[in-house]
Design brief:
This protein is α/β, with parallel strands linked by helices. The chain contains 2 helices and 8 strands, in the order βαββββαβββ. A hairpin with a 5-residue loop joins strand 7 and strand 8.
Length: 134
Amino acid sequence: MTTPIGHLQYNIRAENERFYHDLMVHLGWEILYEEGGMLGCGAGNGQSLWFSPATSDAAANHDAPGLNHLAFAAASVREVDELAGWLARAGVAPLYDTPRHRPEFASSDGDTYYQVMFQSPDGILFEMVYIGPA
């Protein structure tokens, strides 16, 4: 049996909901639900991301057990760069000297792994990555 991911839920501060709405729309996701602080976004393949009001102010620790980051797959280097531009306009700084090529993660000499990493206003770590021909 192989089962795809159905959905992921992230708890967020209510004042940051617009950031996630705008990010997901920019990435081409459909808004499925938006009411009472809950935001649901669909990828068109049955998978969804949900952003729900947090009930605690505890900070995420990306090095502790649990989810480290969520990566979105880009179809091209250009798409990664477009998101990097959108992030800059939104006042979100890229992390780890990205966007950049990461040859150490490429599957062969003719391929590339090109990424931008960023953190949301709630401290959620995201990546957008193109993996394919250099």
